[in-house]
Design a protein that fits this description.
This protein is α/β, with parallel strands linked by helices. It is built from 12 helices and 10 strands. Strand 7, helix 9 and strand 8 form a beta-alpha-beta unit. The two termini are 22 Å apart.
Length: 264
């Protein structure tokens, strides 16, 4: 059985690359819901329905024992439902792994007083990072900033425009001690964020999640034993957009065989 990685688009490939590098012996299956990209501006109810549909496909069609929701918006909208209702009713022996809680824990462990958050509109609107961080690090203040232009830049190869866009966005976050990249697309511009805020610690989920997942599997031997170790990779998307293969190769660093997936 495989480790599944789900996202609405190329951000999931960034996470898949990081997970493959950290856990190369395992079999992995990535699904990008490109037919419904972007998730950030959709309602929570719609995101939950789309996420459930895609996670179910990974469990049933790709035989995943564990699915990582490599999308902050989807984690916020769907994880509680999936863990408390969907899994017990359908796959009680399998697991779904979100990315928000590990990121909040990484922020709290740094002891920062002022933290900036760049994320999609949906993530910022939810207030989840401020709310969860307040529970474990009440002295840390969070300044959230919706940065909706960045996902389209990653998805459409607009890297040459990114420095000016990031520079403009980060004027509002000049005094933060740490910056959370609260969207899995954003690690693609990690160096630009670091150059713009050289005094701030950049907290990037492609660095956090592989380490946390590795530790999780080490502690959960029963789940770990379910996972196959053939180093196999599956890449699927729900809409074969014309430039997707080119952008995916740019993101992943190698040519990929990408399947067009039809989810009923």
């Amino acid at each position: 059985m495989k480790i599944g990685i789900f996202d609405s688009g190329l951000g999931g490939l960034i996470m898949t690359k990081a997970l493959v590098q950290a856990l190369p012996e395992y079999d992995h299956a990535y699904l990008g819901d490109t037919a419904n990209l972007p998730y950030g501006a959709r309602s929570a109810e719609q995101v939950r329905a789309l996420t459930t549909r895609c996670v179910d496909w990974l469990f049933r069609e790709q035989q995943c024992a564990l699915v990582v929701i490599a999308c902050n918006t989807a984690t916020i909208a769907a994880l509680d439902y999936l863990q408390s209702e969907y899994l017990p009713a359908n796959f009680p022996e399998r697991q779904i792994f979100g990315i928000v809680a590990p990121t909040v824990e990484a922020v709290a462990s740094g002891g920062f007083a002022r933290v900036g958050l760049v994320a999609t509109e949906g993530t910022v609107r939810s207030g989840v990072y401020e709310r969860e961080l307040r529970k474990i690090s009440p002295d840390t203040s969070v300044t959230p900033l919706a940065t909706p232009l960045l996902v389209p830049l990653v998805e459409n190869g607009g890297d040459k425009y990114a420095p000016a866009v990031i520079d403009d966005y980060l004027e509002a976050l000049e005094d933060v001690q740490a910056l959370v990249l609260g969207c899995t697309h954003y690690p693609h511009y990690k160096k630009l964020f670091a150059q713009r805020l050289p005094h701030a610690k950049i907290i990037s989920q492609d660095e956090i999640i592989p380490e946390v997942l590795s530790a999780y599997l080490a502690k959960n031997q029963q789940l770990d034993a379910m996972l196959s170790r053939g180093g196999k990779r599956f890449f699927g998307i729900t809409d074969a957009a014309g430039s997707y293969a080119v952008q995916a190769e740019r993101i992943f660093g190698e040519k990929l065989a990408i399947a067009h997936v039809v989810i009923p």
